[in-house]
Every structure is written in structure tokens, then in C-alpha cells.
């Protein structure tokens, strides 16, 4: 360890949370660095003093357990609820847990849907005109199910977990310019989640490198996008906004139609008529697109138009808000209409269609955990926010990189959003 | 033993439920009191926590957390609810330490101020804690009194593990010079940074 450890690493050391290798490096460092050694000793001593003081203090607090029990019993049912059998969906999921590929697709389909819709919503006019290419047929691909490179779990599964979702642009499957970035924060224990949109022009930086726009962060890496590239992007975003990024998922456009068709489209409540006479048709011209006010069922093609149209009938109902609306509608459909078993059944075919359009560092066990956990959330549990709307410094020029607010503000934003949901 | 009591409670054995309550009530109530600094609110939060826990006992999974930790996570959540409700009518920890007693509506004999009157480590710790930002104080109390793990604390506080670690590390950094230099009485002239209680 050449650099001085930060306070989190010192805490991890004191708490015995470092791996054996990291611990060895840490101890080698403090053996030669009296400053860090003093920090460790001081923090350790402070923790022990605090613990002793608090426990001694607590012993002085008296209580009346008898009275408290009387109060509790007034509110309890005569018979405590016995264990109920798990729901059919959950039971099926558990029984299929060994089929990692099948379960993985559930999460990735949801993720790709959310991510690609966002990609489409903010993609540039030049790239919007390209429609996703039809996917391979299920029969061809179902013979060989290939998952993203199985990787050992990089860390024990923690709750909550944050996932950086990156969507590359619509130009081609080989493109690596990022068109959308979204931080998904999932806390299944607390039954809540947050999807925080990040501007693609966000200026990101790492201590060892110059700042650059988020959309360009993968451009400099030659060849195939590797796990290291994804983790680099994750670290840069994490360092910039001050929120830990546990995993990264990169999604290409091809997964969009397959995912939305797989769930049978989405139902959205259109608050105002949308009439767009200049919707790019992909052939250099324009089509007319119309969505009537009221509850509408959208197939993949209509959903695509719904989130891509730039027409905003009134303030607050722009394509960004429509994108979020469709993300929720998709999630709602999957979670509430018991589509998970159906998706699992069709997973090999679906995976075959989108397998080349998703890259991730997630291990199989992570994916299984996430797939199981995310299906317990309803759309009421998901907060949506856009970093650009409320937490960024003003842009000095139209094309300037967007500077993130201070990390502490981002953390406060997330915490306040989650607290509002409780 | 605890698991046996849980099973019996779920089978309708009220004495088992009562045993669970009496085994865990002191630690849960004291944790709530530490977090809220108010007996009435701590009573409410603890009561809510046990009602919730017994009503959802079938959902407790011993593979995920010890029963005591599960209860601490629940009561912390209830304490956060209480804090949101009572904002605007709180007494800061700083004020508590300065005055040496709790507000008039508190029961004089049932409060941390009893300890505060005793010089030494307890008083030093409370005075120092009063100068730590609220969220860091919560994290420190959960870690060093509640003995929760970091994932459990993250769950209790509704934030990421890394956030909890940052709060604990920062809190310890703030506390270090205060605890090291305060022998035994610390300066209480600076205001509570949040202007509110834990």
C-alpha cells in the first residue's frame, strides 16, 4: 500500500472487515508509517471509549418491562400469524434458483427495459432515427445459452445494492458512446428502490485521471468492452457523485424490443393528447404519431415512439417524464401481473435475443439475489429522480460538461427521496 | 433458545412471546432512548417495534440476522419515524447536556441525565457526542451501543453500507480529540451542529 489509507479503510481494518490480503498490505503500511499507525490507534481507542461510555450510560436508564408488555398485548392478535407458504411466484423462483441463466434474464430484462427506455428518451436526434434491428429467432439461440462472463463475486451480497446502468447509443451494436446513465439503488429489505438519472454530459473524474464527459468514458478503450472498463466507469461515477457503485450493467439497443415484447407491452395513462407530426421515421422523413389521452396499451413499437417523441403537450409531461412513466409501467407489469414465471419459461429464447446486448460485472449469485429481490418491489416502492433537475450547478454554456453537485448533496438527495417514501 | 421461543410463540404460546419480550425489551428500549433522548418517544417507538415484530414474527429469518439485531433494526426505523413526527418540538442533546436535565415533561428519574450527573466517561462521551452531526451520532450509537453490523445498520438507517461507514468514520474523527482532551468535563459552549436531537 503506497498511499495512505483513507478513514474508511482504517475503519475497515479496525472492524476486521479487510480481506487477508488487504489487511496484510495495510499492516505493512502502518508498520512503516507512524502517522497512519497513530490514526489507527486513536480511532480504535475512541471506538472503545465510546462503546464503554454508551453501555455504562445505558445501564442507568431504567424501564418498566411489565407495563410495556401489557401495552403490547393490547395490540396483538389472539394468535400470532403462523408462517405462510411463499407465494407461487416466489416458490417457483426459489425452486429454479439453480438455473442461473433463467433467473438472470429476469433481472436483466427488467434492467434492459429500464435502461433502454431511458436511452431512447435522451438519445440525440441523429441517433433516434435508427430503429433497433430485429433479433435472432428464439429457436436458433435457445440451443446455447450463454450468460455474461461468469465472474467470481467481487463482494458479499449487501443490502442495499447500487447498480450503474449504462445505455450506449443507437448508432450500431459496436458503438460505445454512452447515451444514458442511471443509478439504480435497490433496498429489498426496506422494500424501496431509487432510479437516479445521470446526465450523459456529466463531468466525471478519478484521482488518477483527467475529467471527461460520462458519455465518452468508454471511448478510449480499444477492442471489446471488458469488465475492467465497466468498473472504471463505475468508479468514476462513484467518485464524482459520492455514491458507492456496486455493479455496472451496460445495455445496447437490441435488447429493447425483445424485452418489451416479452412482457406483452405496457399500459400507460396518457394525461394529455400527444400529436407529433415530425417524428423521425428512420428513412430521412417524418411520420405522424398520435397518442390519445387516457389509458393506453403500448406494444414495443408504440412505446418506443411514446418515449422518443419530443412533443411535450404541457410542462412536466416531456419525454423524460414519459420515459419514467413507461419504466414504472414495465416494472408494474412484471411484478404485479405475475409475469416472472412466464419470463423464466421464455428466458432461454429471450436471453438468446439480447445476450449480445448486455455486458455486466455481476456474478451469477449476485444476479440471482437481485432477481429474487427486485420482484418483491412494486412501483410504489420505486422513487425516480433526475440529478440534472435539481442538483447540478448551472451550465455556463450550452455544450459545457455538466458539473455534479457536491457529493454530500447527492447523498442527501437520495436519502431524502427514500425517506419520503417511508 | 430464542428460536425455540419464537416457534412456541408462533404456535400460540403466550408465555413464550412474553419471554421474548422480557429478554429483549431492556436493550431495545435503551437503544430507542439513546437515539431519541426522550422517554415518551422511546416508549412509543419500542412499543411499535414489538407490536410489529410479533405481528410479523413469521417473517423473521434467523439466517439473515440474530433476533436481537432484527428487533434493533425495527426499533431504529420506528425511532426515525418518531423523529420525523416530533421535529420542531425537540430538545437538542447539547441543550440536554448543558442543562443537566431533560424537558419538564420528562420523568426526572428515568433519563440519561441521571448518568450525566456523574463525572467521568459517561459525561465526557455525552458532551462529545453532542458535537457530532445527527446522522453520524445515530450510526455511532447503533455500532458502539447496538452492536449492529454495517449491513444491518444500513438496513436500519435506509442507506448504503458505504454511507454508514462514512458516518461512523467521520463521527469517530470528530469524537477523537474531544474524548482525548476532555478530562473529565468537556467544553459545552459550541452548539449542536444540527440544532436537534439524535
Largest sheet of chain A: 6 strands, mixed
Secondary-structure-derived class of chain A: alpha+beta
Give the low-pLDDT segments of chain A. 84-106, 115-157, 389-399
Regarding quaternary structure, what we see is: heterodimer
CATH superfamily membership of the largest domain in chain B: Winged helix-like DNA-binding domain superfamily/Winged helix DNA-binding domain
Overall 3D shape of chain A: globular
Mean pLDDT of chain B: 75
Low-confidence stretches of chain B: 88-119, 184-198
Total strands of chain B: 0
Shape of chain B, please?
elongated
| Order of adjacent strands in the largest pleated sheet of chain A | 11-6-1-2-3-12
| Most strands sheet of chain B | none
Q: Compute the separation of the termini of chain A in Å.
A: 42 Å
Q: Provide the CATH architecture of the largest domain in chain A.
A: 3-Layer(aba) Sandwich
Task: Walk me through this protein's architecture.
- The complex is a heterodimer of chains A (422) and B (198).
- By secondary structure, chain A is of the alpha+beta class.
- Chain A folds into 2 domains: 7-54, no CATH class; 100-421, LCP protein (Aminopeptidase), CATH 3.40.630.190.
- Chain A contains 17 helices and 12 strands.
- In chain A, the strands form 4 sheets. Chain A has a 6-stranded mixed beta sheet with strand order 11-6-1-2-3-12. A two-stranded antiparallel sheet of chain A has the order 4-5. Chain A has a two-stranded antiparallel ribbon with strand order 7-10.
- Chain A is globular.
- Helix content of chain B is 65%, strand content 0%.
- Chain B is elongated.
- Chain B is an all-alpha fold.
- Chain B has helices at residues 2-10, 14-36, 39-55, 67-86, 93-99, 113-116, 121-129, 134-144, 150-157, 161-181.
- Chain B folds into 2 domains: 1-90, Orthogonal Bundle (Rna Polymerase Sigma Factor, Chain: A); 92-187, Winged helix-like DNA-binding domain superfamily/Winged helix DNA-binding domain (Arc Repressor Mutant, subunit A), CATH 1.10.10.10.
- Chain B has 10 helices and no strands.
- In chain B, 54% of the residues are buried.
- In chain B, α2 (14-36) crosses α4, α3 (39-55) packs across α4 (67-86) and α4 runs parallel beside α9.
- The chains are: A alpha+beta (422), B mainly alpha (198).
- Chains A and B meet through α1, α3, α4 and α17 of A and α2, α3, α4, α7 and α8 of B.
Amino acid at each position: 500500500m503506497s498511499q495512505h489509507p483513507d478513514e474508511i479503510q482504517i475503519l475497515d481494518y479496525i472492524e476486521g472487515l479487510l480481506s487477508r490480503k488487504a489487511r496484510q498490505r495495510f499492516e505493512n503500511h502502518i508498520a512503516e508509517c507512524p502517522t497512519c499507525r497513530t490514526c489507527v490507534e486513536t480511532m480504535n481507542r475512541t471506538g472503545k471509549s465510546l462503546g464503554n461510555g454508551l453501555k455504562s450510560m445505558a445501564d442507568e436508564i431504567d424501564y418498566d418491562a411489565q407495563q410495556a408488555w401489557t401495552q403490547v398485548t393490547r395490540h396483538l392478535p389472539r394468535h400470532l400469524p403462523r408462517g405462510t407458504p411463499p407465494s407461487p411466484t416466489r416458490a417457483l423462483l426459489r425452486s429454479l434458483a439453480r438455473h442461473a441463466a433463467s433467473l438472470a434474464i429476469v433481472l436483466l430484462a427488467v434492467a434492459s427495459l429500464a435502461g433502454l427506455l431511458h436511452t431512447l428518451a435522451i438519445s440525440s436526434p441523429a441517433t433516434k432515427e435508427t430503429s433497433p434491428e430485429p433479433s435472432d429467432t428464439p429457436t436458433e439461440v435457445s440451443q446455447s445459452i450463454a450468460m455474461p462472463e461468469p465472474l467470481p463475486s467481487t463482494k458479499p451480497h449487501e443490502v442495499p445494492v447500487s447498480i450503474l446502468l449504462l445505455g450506449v447509443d443507437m448508432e450500431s451494436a459496436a458503438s460505445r458512446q454512452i447515451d444514458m446513465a442511471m443509478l439504480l439503488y435497490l433496498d429489498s429489505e426496506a422494500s424501496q428502490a431509487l432510479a437516479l438519472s445521470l446526465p450523459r454530459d456529466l463531468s466525471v473524474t478519478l484521482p488518477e485521471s483527467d475529467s471527461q464527459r460520462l458519455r465518452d468514458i468508454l471511448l478510449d478503450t480499444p477492442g471489446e468492452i471488458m469488465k475492467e472498463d465497466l468498473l472504471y466507469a463505475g468508479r468514476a461515477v462513484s467518485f464524482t457523485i459520492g455514491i458507492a457503485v456496486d455493479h455496472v450493467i451496460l445495455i445496447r439497443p437490441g435488447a429493447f424490443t425483445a424485452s418489451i415484447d416479452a412482457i406483452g407491452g405496457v399500459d400507460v395513462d396518457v394525461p394529455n393528447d400527444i400529436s407529433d407530426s415530425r417524428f423521425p421515421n428512420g428513412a430521412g422523413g417524418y411520420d405522424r404519431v398520435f397518442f390519445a389521452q387516457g389509458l393506453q396499451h403500448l406494444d414495443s413499437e408504440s412505446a418506443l415512439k411514446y418515449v422518443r417523441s419530443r412533443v411535450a403537450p404541457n410542462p412536466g409531461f416531456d419525454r423524460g417524464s414519459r420515459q419514467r412513466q413507461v419504466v414504472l409501467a414495465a416494472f408494474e407489469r412484471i411484478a404485479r401481473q405475475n409475469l416472472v414465471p412466464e419470463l423464466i419459461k421464455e428466458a432461454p429464447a429471450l436471453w438468446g435475443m439480447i445476450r449480445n446486448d448486455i455486458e455486466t460485472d455481476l456474478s451469477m449469485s449476485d444476479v440471482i439475489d437481485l432477481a429474487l429481490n427486485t420482484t418483491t418491489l412494486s412501483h410504489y416502492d420505486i422513487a425516480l429522480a433526475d440529478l440534472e433537475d435539481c442538483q447540478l450547478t448551472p451550465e455556463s454554456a450550452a455544450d459545457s460538461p455538466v458539473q455534479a453537485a457536491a457529493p454530500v448533496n447527492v447523498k442527501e438527495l437520495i436519502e431524502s427521496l427514500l425517506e419520503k417514501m417511508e | 433458545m430464542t428460536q425455540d421461543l419464537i416457534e412456541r410463540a408462533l404456535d400460540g404460546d403466550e408465555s413464550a412471546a412474553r419471554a421474548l419480550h422480557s429478554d429483549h425489551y431492556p436493550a431495545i428500549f435503551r437503544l430507542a432512548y439513546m437515539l431519541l433522548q426522550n422517554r415518551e418517544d422511546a416508549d412509543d417507538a419500542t412499543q411499535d417495534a414489538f407490536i410489529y415484530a410479533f405481528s410479523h414474527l413469521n417473517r423473521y429469518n434467523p439466517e439473515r440476522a440474530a433476533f436481537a439485531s432484527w428487533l434493533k433494526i425495527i426499533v431504529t426505523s420506528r425511532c426515525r419515524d418518531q423523529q420525523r413526527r416530533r421535529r420542531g418540538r425537540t430538545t437538542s442533546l447539547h441543550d440536554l447536556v448543558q442543562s443537566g436535565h431533560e424537558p419538564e415533561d420528562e420523568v426526572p428519574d428515568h433519563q440519561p441525565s441521571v448518568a450525566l450527573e456523574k463525572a467521568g466517561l459517561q459525561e465526557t462521551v455525552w458532551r462529545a457526542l453532542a458535537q457530532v452531526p445527527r446522522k453520524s451520532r445515530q450510526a455511532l450509537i447503533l455500532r458502539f451501543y447496538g452492536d449492529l453490523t454495517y449491513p444491518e445498520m444500513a438496513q436500519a438507517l435506509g442507506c448504503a453500507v458505504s454511507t454508514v461507514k462514512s458516518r461512523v468514520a467521520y463521527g469517530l474523527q470528530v469524537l477523537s480529540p474531544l474524548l482525548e482532551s476532555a478530562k473529565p468535563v468537556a467544553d459545552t459552549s459550541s452548539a449542536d451542529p444540527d440544532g436537534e436531537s439524535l
